[in-house]
Amino acid sequence: MTPDAVDRLRAEAARDDYASMARLARALYGTGLGPREVLRECYGVAFPDEVFAIAEGGLWRLRLLALFTNQPWQLAVPPGRGGPAAEPDGLIDTELRLLAGDLDLMPLVRVPAADPGREDRIVCYRLSELRAGRSTVFRLFESSAAESALACGISLLEVLHAEHTASVRRLEKELRSPSNWGAGSVDDDEVDRAYASLERVEALQRRVSERLAEGQGDAGG
Question: CA dist 21 to 25, 27, 53, Å?
Answer without folding.
Answer: 6, 10, 21
